[in-house]
Write a structure and sequence with these properties.
Layout (H helix, E strand, L loop, with lengths): L3 H9 L2 E8 L4 E3 L7 H17 L1 H7 L5 E4 L2 H7 L8 E2 L10 H9 L10 E11 L4 E10 L5 E10 L5 H19 L1
Helix pairs in contact: 2-3, 2-6
Length: 183
């Protein structure tokens, strides 16, 4: 799902808008590792807030040299609709359940402010897998006005740290660093 001519010119500018981390497709393996539903619901918001609160680390350092704006409202509203309890599972097949072609459909459902344009970047969380100590994501660069995805890639990050928030935040920090190096 890569249109080289469009994606190269859009990504070469080094300017994009961060839409946040979309957790609507994320499964949490295994339920015993995520015992409190209310805490997990709060962490979904906290993980997105952390990127905003610690922009120096998560954006300036990880995405060095990029000019990044923020528009996380569309993803925040989607994340508020999640039935977290239904996303807790022991089913190992849920660790890698998304297909690349589904990413376009997910982004088409974003309710984006009409005044926004340019290139958007979103992480779509696929799973937080405690036994593998990894967070799995699809990254997507897309044209904000048309919602057309022009680059999507599956990436995963190693979990580490103390506490539920920091442990899983390390996964997307590592993914952001990979994005910064590659794109």
């Amino acid at each position: 799902m890569t249109n080289i001519s469009y994606s190269q010119s859009a990504l070469n500018t080094g300017e994009f808008t961060w839409f946040g981390i979309d957790y609507t497709q994320c499964y949490y393996l295994t339920p015993i590792d995520f015992p409190s539903i209310s805490d997990l619901e709060a962490k979904i918001k906290a993980w997105n807030d952390l990127v905003l609160d610690e922009q120096e680390k998560y954006i300036a350092k990880a995405l060095a040299g990029k000019n990044v704006d923020f528009a996380i409202e569309a993803v925040t509203k989607r994340n508020e609709t999640i039935n977290v309890k239904s996303m807790l599972t022991e089913d190992e097949t849920k660790a890698f359940h998304l297909e690349t072609n589904q990413i376009q459909q997910i982004i088409e459902n974003y309710n984006i402010e009409e005044s926004l344009n340019g290139t958007g970047l979103v992480l779509i969380a696929e799973s937080y897998h405690r036994l593998d100590e990894r967070g799995n994501y699809y990254i997507a660069f897309f044209d904000i006005a048309t919602k057309k995805v022009f680059v999507t890639e599956h990436m995963s990050g190693k979990a580490k740290g103390i506490g539920l928030r920091n442990y899983w935040a390390a996964t997307y920090y590592n993914v952001l660093k990979s994005i910064g190096k590659k794109y």
